[in-house]
Amino acid sequence: MRITDQMMYQNMAQNIDQAQAAYVRTQQEASSGVSISQPSDNPAGTATILQLEAAQQQVTAWQSNANGAQSQMQVADQTLGQIENAVNSATSLASEGASQTNTLQETQDMASQAAQILGDVGALANTQYQGLYVFSGVQQIAPVTSTGSGSSTVYTPSSEQTTAGGVVAQSVEIGHAVQIPVSVDASSVLGGTQYASGTAYSALPAWLQQRASALQAQALQQTPPGTGVLTPASGPTSSQTTTVAFSSSLVSVLGYLQQDLSSGNAAAVEADLGELQAQAGTLTNVRAALGANMNRVEAAVSQLQSTNTTLQTEQGSVENVDMAQIVAQLTAEQTAYQAAVAAGAQMKLPTLANYLT
Amino acid sequence: MDIASTALSAAQTLMDVAGQNIANDATPGYSQQVANLVATPPYAQPDMGGLYTPQLGTGVEVQSVTRVRANYLDGIYRTTQSNESYYSTRTNYLQALQSVLNEPGSNGLSASMNTFFSSYQTLSQNPQSSAARTVVQQDGEALAAQVQQIYQGLQSVGVQAQSQAGLDAQTANSDLQQLANLNTTISQAQAIGQQPNDLLDQRDNLLDSLSKLININFSTQTSTVGSFVTSQVTVTMPTSSGSSVTLVSGGQYGSLQVQPTTTSQASYASDTTALGLTAQTDTINGATIAVTATDTLQSLASKINAANAGVTATVVPNGSQYQLTLTSNSSQPITGNGSDLFGTTAQGLAIPVGTPQFVANATDALTGTTSPVAPSGGSIGAAYSLVNTDLNPNPPSGSAPTLMSQFTSAVLGLLNDINTVQMQGVYPVYSGSSTTPTSWSAGVPFFVSPTNTTGTLTAQDIPSVEVNPAIQNDINQITTTSTQAQDTGGPNLGDGWNATQMADIAQQQSGPVSQYSSFVADMGAAVDLSQNLQSTSQSLLTQVTSQREQTAGVSINEQMTNLVQAQSMYTAAAKVAEAMDSSLQSLLSAIQP
Predict the structure, then answer these.
(1) Which three-class secondary structure state does DSSP give residue A195?
(2) What is the mean pLDDT of chain A?
(3) Is the Cβ–Cβ distance between A108 and A265 less than 8 Å?
(4) For chain B, which has fewer Cβ within 10 Å, the N-terminal or C-terminal residue?
(5) Which pLDDT band, with edges at 50, 70 and 90, does B348 fall under?
(6) pLDDT at A344 (0 to 100)
(7) B121: nearest CB among A14, A53, A65
(8) In order of start, what are the domains of chain B with their CATH numbers?
(9) Test the B interface: residue of A161, A163, A173, A318 with most B CBs within 10 Å
């Protein structure tokens, strides 16, 4: 085969070029730590990486939702605990006040304690977490509205917050098509029904009927007889209607308790005690439901964390270079390059011209 | 004596040829030259008796100095060169397109999409938080700005490719002219028996460099003039219709024109019915055109043509409608007042910004007719296929999606999905100083363009897409709740259901996120393929070059051998002359009185 000078030099230049290009490419991978710096390095891998990054972003967002939900629920749970404590102290107060042996002064003191408890519960109903009212459902920026006053105060969410089923819960997404309610429906505890003046006696719940009868009897016994709470003043109870408002919530029970203690009506206090105990049961139910949701969120938080880790690992396996392998490759290519350059230096072979005189 | 002198001059010629070869050892495209020695015609010696009449030689002469070249390799070389140049140019342009995308990484459109959707997740936690709403609005603005930026970046690569192709076409045309001139010069020289080896080399070099620019077919025509043979090269190129155009034939040459254009069209039912446009002064590429209500497509076309706006307007029937086409003579988008050149779209005549296209024509050398060509090789071919195929946003129906059409459909899918969810929600309307909403209004589109606020964007809106100014002015119009049945029974200020729906777009199986990532992957695959083809054709080219070199290259050792041979021939011939001379001297001195 005939060899010309240009062939030799072209070959040498090309081989050095190729060795150098391979070395530079490997060096870039080693110094950046990623094997995919642009889509053409690994098109299918690039698509995988983009999908994984999107998935990671979603998981992070769900984590933030779940953490926020967890905190909000914890605040709600603590608040409910405090309400429970208030109910317990009201219950012991009521059992004390139901005894017939208290003096008026003692019951008056107990009445002011009851008023204090009433005020506390009222404040707790509007607990906020980062500016959001915990018991307001989707109407998070508005406090639970109180209707009525004094002993007939009822705390209810506004009409925007309720549907036929109760308080509308605010939900957030913590997984693919998985939503969790973050607000607490405490309307069964804080809410209740208000019975306006003119309600039929038969429409009142049992304990309010008792109360109404007792108040009516008390009023009629006064000299001169005072205005009762029912009309007509006497007669078949089925035809009587109320002349004042009544309400049947935890708050109103506390209000009645306060009223009854301050007037020293031990029998009424006894009735209030019974109702308080019933309310305590309702409160426990609400707390249990909240607890179940809190467990769900906690499980979600730890699961999302492990999902995040899995995704990161997967992305790393596609994207990152195997450092040990790349360093070995780098050394090999460096050697190859140096050999090519050294061989090229030997290319300067003597020609016939060197030897002819 | 005479014999010796022929030997001397032959030796001298040999040394000259060897010297010429050595001097041109490194000259690119040089074919080594060889002196052909031939014995001069003998003559019959006068009869001195005997049976046979000897014929004596008369010396040596150099009959010709020819170049050594394997012509059959030239064809293979030029085809391979066209391919290699095509793929290397194409790789460069595709890499430029790829780098516009800036993927994978945190600066690309995927990252902006992810940020946008997760800011909606944050909003769903507290829909009333104005901080969260502001973040959503800003992320939306970043998304819109990035879409515009990527689109313009992709377009500008196409513009650059076209202007480079224009320069290449000028180079090609001057090569064609030089080829024609060389044809004339070479055949003139050959007709009188000369061998213009260096001109022949030059002609071959021109053909090589021409094949780098565009795919050509060449053939050599020989003809006999007297007792000599002349050779001329004919260069042709295939046209779009399947025939071929002659670019060089003998001393005549044609030319190649590449024209970047932008075309845009608008259709209307009739070309002679008044369009009822609002009377106003419109601008096209800076030139003003007075539009009246009685203008028809035809009258608009003639106004545009008369306005010297750098566009040509034509009206042609197109199915049941008439189409007004604006063709500009540059690849820049046709600019006007907004992307709708003649008032609002409500008036039924919206002329979009225009699709850049690349048109290539070739003028025949012999007939002078111009026909369209579709270059498929060389750097001009790479620019042609890049602009007309890869960057074509509207490929003909039935053909594979192009990179640009994939991009626009992924982006439009994203923007329109966002608009749909935004518009299915409602936002509260307050009156006076009341803090409770008096009513709920349907959401406005999130992304609009100045000329399209319907919420359904098309490809023409992409260069000017933006967040709806209504939302920019009032972030409460970002809808987070809705009246849908799956919702909590009605719109609520604190309800984040619609925000969650928006964030869920990112999770759709074949949604915008996965469409865009497969576009990025396809772009990467195209670059990868082009790189592979480039390195394949490059190694082929190296092989063919090496083969050419093998035959036509200069080997110093060979030339030195020839030089030594010529040198000894010269010395020997000089000795012969000396011997003859001394013989004559002794003869002369013998007859001296």
Answers:
(1) strand
(2) 83
(3) no
(4) C
(5) very low
(6) 84
(7) A65
(8) 2-68+557-590 (no CATH), 76-252+403-515 (no CATH), 256-358 (3.30.70.2120)
(9) A173
